[in-house]
């Protein structure tokens, strides 16, 4: 009887102690950076819906907006000290939709559908390359030179494909899938953008611009002139910028090769303190 009483008293004491013990706080989710990521996802979804309704110009603008928002969410997270593993995973998944699936589906509907399985090949190569590029980026993020991307970044690849659609739609081309030369042009651009994402060519990341490092005054003048030129005719000017960037990685690769310098983004910089320990 006494043993039962002592056991019951011990159980009550353990229960009271457990109730008094503070409960672990649940991990929350930061609102601001993830809200920007969701806004980017909505832009990609809206672009697909507009393409289904034949509004390819609006679809292109939707992908451009998604790219702008994608460039903001990470910076906002760092500025507000609200980085999280959840945000990183969500950003990567949204990038796959916005810059992988959406451009492939839009260009397929715009120009490639009448090419049959040949058109499917270009769209599938693009979407597969986007998935591979994002997976490689996530696994190599700690061992690459921050000044460069390893391969064409997926937002730039999407901008290249959607820039072609935007400029041709602005020029008045309709029913593009019935125009042979334009369908094959779209095929080539889509294939080029997809394969460029999985190359090792170093594309400049612009991460050192706008941070803590200073730039010469002439850079601001050049930016002002660039904005003025783009405003003259946005479709052609933007597409020219996207094409120039899409070729820049190969130009840098060839230049470094001719100079006998390392071409791998894992072994380019040895001066930056952030790159110490990354190079053999």
- Supply the CATH class: Mainly Alpha
Query: What class, by secondary structure content?
Result: mainly alpha
Q: Give the biggest sheet.
A: 2 strands, antiparallel
At CATH level 2, the architecture is Up-down Bundle
CATH homolog superfamily: CDP-alcohol phosphotransferase transmembrane (TM) domain
Strand content: under 5%
Which word captures the global form? globular
H/E series, N to C? HHHHHEHHEHH
Total number of β-strand segments?
2
**Percent helix range:** 55-70%
What is the radius of gyration computed over CA atoms, rounded to a whole number of angstroms? 25 Å
Low-confidence spans: 267-280
Compact summary:
It is built from nine helices and two strands, in the order αααααβααβαα. It is mostly helical and 280 residues long. The longest helix has 28 residues, at 85-112.
What secondary-structure arrangement, pairings included, does this model have?
Layout lengths: L1 H19 L10 H22 L3 H24 L5 H28 L4 H24 L7 E3 L3 H17 L9 H18 L4 E3 L12 H16 L1 H25 L22
Antiparallel strand pairs: 1-2
Helix pairs in contact: 2-3, 2-4, 3-4, 3-6, 4-5, 4-6, 4-7, 5-7, 6-7, 6-9, 8-9
Account of the protein in words:
The chain is an all-alpha fold and 280 residues long. It has a single domain (31-275), classed as Four Helix Bundle (Hemerythrin (Met), subunit A). The protein has 9 helices and 2 strands. The chain has a two-stranded antiparallel sheet. The model is unreliable at 267-280 (pLDDT under 50).
């Amino acid at each position: 009887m006494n043993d039962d009483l002592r056991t019951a008293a011990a159980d009550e004491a353990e229960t009271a102690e457990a109730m008094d013990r503070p409960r672990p706080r649940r991990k929350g989710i930061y609102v601001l950076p993830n809200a920007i990521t969701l806004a980017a996802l909505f832009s990609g979804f809206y672009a697909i819906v507009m393409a289904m309704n034949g509004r390819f110009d609006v679809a292109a603008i939707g992908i451009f907006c998604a790219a702008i928002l994608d460039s903001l969410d990470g910076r906002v997270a760092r500025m507000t000290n609200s980085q999280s593993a959840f945000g990183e995973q969500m950003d990567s998944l949204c990038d796959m939709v916005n810059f992988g699936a959406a451009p492939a589906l839009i260009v397929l509907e715009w120009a490639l559908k009448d090419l049959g399985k040949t058109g499917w090949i270009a769209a599938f190569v693009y979407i597969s390359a986007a998935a591979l590029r994002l997976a490689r980026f996530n696994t190599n993020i700690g061992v690459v030179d921050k000044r460069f991307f390893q391969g064409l970044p997926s937002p730039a690849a999407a901008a290249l494909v959607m820039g072609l659609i935007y400029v041709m739609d602005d020029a008045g081309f309709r029913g593009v899938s019935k125009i042979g030369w334009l369908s094959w042009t779209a095929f080539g651009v889509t294939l080029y953008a997809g394969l460029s994402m999985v190359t090792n060519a170093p594309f400049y990341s612009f991460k050192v611009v706008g941070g803590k490092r200073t730039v010469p005054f002439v850079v601001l003048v050049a930016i002002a002139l660039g904005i003025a030129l783009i405003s003259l005719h946005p479709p052609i000017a933007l597409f020219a910028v996207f094409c120039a960037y899409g070729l820049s990685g190969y130009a840098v690769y060839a230049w470094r090769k001719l100079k006998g310098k390392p071409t791998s983004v894992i072994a380019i910089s040895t001066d930056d303190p952030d790159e110490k320990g990354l190079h053999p």
